[in-house]
Amino acid sequence: MKRISAVIMIYLDLSKAQRPDSTWLIDVFEDAQARLETPKEDVAMILIMLFINTNAYRVAFWMLAHIYHSESLLAAITEETRRSMKDDGSVDVPKLMNDSPKLDSL
After folding, report:
1. Is the CB of residue 106 less than 8 Å from the CB of residue 80?
2. Are 80 and 99 in contact (CB under 8 A)?
3. For the segment 72-105, what is each residue's pLDDT rounded down to a tens digit?
4. Is the sign of the CA dihedral 85, 89, 91, 92 positive or negative?
């Protein structure tokens, strides 16, 4: 998260002339935060959260498309997730989070 934040702060340091294709939403948000004197680090983190929340369904779609496009990846992820299933049908979430390198790589 720190690397992403650092890149966004570099972007925010560019003049508006250097980023002519900026979206209206980002321009308005940036101007409002400047008027509020929000620290640049906070602006970067808010933008990250905005990107995550507005793009989550797109990311999920492309992740699933990538998985289903590759039979070997689908098989590997199926096996990883199968190992995290308990006998009662529930998921061992810590095991899933810590023992699923292929799924985690997405």
Report:
1. no
2. yes
3. 999 999 999 999 999 999 999 999 999 988 888 8
4. negative
Neighbouring residues of 63: CB distance < 8 A, sequence distance ≥ 6: 106
The number of C-alpha atoms within 13 Å of 34 and in the hemisphere containing its C-beta is 8
- Tell me how far apart the alpha carbons of residues 38 and 48 are, in angstroms, rounded to a whole number: 15
Give the three-state DSSP class for 95: helix
Q: Please state, in angstroms and rounded to a whole number, the distance separating the CA atoms of residues 59 and 54.
A: 10
Phi and psi at residue 72, to the nearest 5°: -70, -40
SS3 category, 38 = coil
pTM score, whole prediction: 0.51
CA count, 13 A, side-chain hemisphere, 14: 13
